[in-house]
Specification:
GO terms for molecular function: metal ion binding. InterPro entries: Fosfomycin_Res_Enzymes, Glyas_Bleomycin-R_OHBP_Dase, Glyas_Fos-R_dOase_dom, VOC_core, YwkD-like_dom. Helices cover about 15% and strands about 35% of the residues. By secondary structure, the protein is an alpha/beta fold. The protein has 2 domains: about 60 residues, Roll (2,3-Dihydroxybiphenyl 1,2-Dioxygenase, domain 1), CATH 3.10.180.10; about 55 residues, 2,3-Dihydroxybiphenyl 1,2-Dioxygenase, domain 1 (Roll). A 4-stranded mixed beta sheet has the order 1-4-3-2, with helices on one face. Strands 5-8-7-6 form a 4-stranded mixed beta sheet, with helices on one face.
């Protein structure tokens, strides 16, 4: 048995670092733990936390290749965030000009959820708990 204890972080490569940094910090509200300019790689590395827990490593690289993400491409399907008030979260995103899909109900749990995209069109989900 491998004895995994938790997910440590999720790594995301952005096309426009400043735009993605703003999205994840100012719109989603993640906090910056550290930011490193890796000049030799023409890259930034930004460590982001949610409620004090390190969760996302945001990278920039020059000219990253596109990765298909929709409708159901192979690989990571989406990143989901838990929220306690889905309507308020959707309203906040709308105020920031972030478009969300219509709210749906999970047929297995009865919980409400919606999808939206980050600046690089990576699929993100809000799931009401």
């Amino acid at each position: 048995m491998l004895n995994l204890s938790a997910v440590h972080h999720i790594a995301i490569i952005s096309q426009d670092y400043e735009k993605s940094k703003r999205f994840y910090t100012e719109i989603l509200g993640l906090t910056i733990l550290s930011e490193v300019n890796r000049a030799e790689r023409q890259s930034y590395k930004l460590d982001l936390a949610l409620n004090g827990q390190y969760i996302i490593e945001l990278f920039s690289f020059p000219n990253p290749p596109k990765r298909p993400s929709r409708p159901e491409a192979l690989g990571l399907r989406h990143l989901a965030f838990a929220v306690t008030d889905l309507d308020a979260a959707v309203a906040h995103l709308a105020e920031q000009n972030v478009v969300t899909e219509p709210i749906r109900v999970d047929e297995l749990t009865g919980k409400r959820f919606t999808f939206f995209a980050d600046p690089d069109d990576l699929p993100l989900e809000l799931y009401e708990v």
